[in-house]
Amino acid sequence: MYDLGFKTFPWRRFRDFISPKAVRFTMLKEILEESALDYRILEIGGNRHFFIAPPHREEFPRRLPAILVAHYDRADGSPGANDNSASVFLILEAAVKLWEKGVQNWIIIFTDKEELRTGESIREQGSYSLAVRLKSLKMEHARIFNFDACGTGDTLVISTTLEYLLKRERSGERLRESVAELRKMALDTARNLGMAKVLLAPTPFSDDAGFFSAGLAAQTITVLPSSECMQLVAELRKNQNFAEALISAELRQTNSRKSIPETWRCFNSPSDSHLRLTPENFRTIVRFAEALCTG
Predict the structure, then answer these.
(1) Helices (H), strands (E): how many in the chain?
(2) What is residue 229's three-state secondary structure?
(3) Fewer beta carbons within 10 angstroms: which end of the chain, N or C?
């Protein structure tokens, strides 16, 4: 299915999506229209987010839906193949499969402005104002899973970044419980699928930072090659300050940069091209995304 020629839907649009001249909002809109999925565009604070839901979703579901999130913007000067185009296309494929199976209790959000420019604060991230809106809609207890950089590697990394934020900011008990619940759901889902390569580790900031600043928990999911995971674990054991370096964009520019996994060092650079992707592992991520919505 995941031919390096990217010939199947939605992957046949992938090369265009990561091209330097791509207008990604327009292209994603076209891809969604081709998919026949029901979607709407919600503009909040100048950012345009795509919402996708089942065509006949229950008006009053028995439990709040699983919300799968992936940002569709990219840093200037980068193809953005792994960060975060691959996740967008993987989640889009999961949406089509959920729709075909008649699964009801899910929402997918493709977010705008995850990437911040120098000097911008977390509260300027698109996910911050989005989280404020979700809270106003009584969605603060929704199960939010944020997929970022899921295109390179064979090991599922379930982020522990929010644990560091909880310690630093002494957030309330409800938010702490939500973080723990999401972590457990992710681990249980991976175990039920028989996924052998799973790692709990801190990861660079993603949309989870904006959600957290607004008081919502969002469990980030990413992927790394197993060799880089081994190096990451060794560095975390050796250097007690390394987790902070991973999380902080400023610290990642210091001497700790050379110890950061190569996949993450490629973010926001010309190196983040389709040549670094590992399509042979894509199906695992699609299955995981589907299972989060059906478990």
Answers:
(1) 11, 8
(2) helix
(3) N
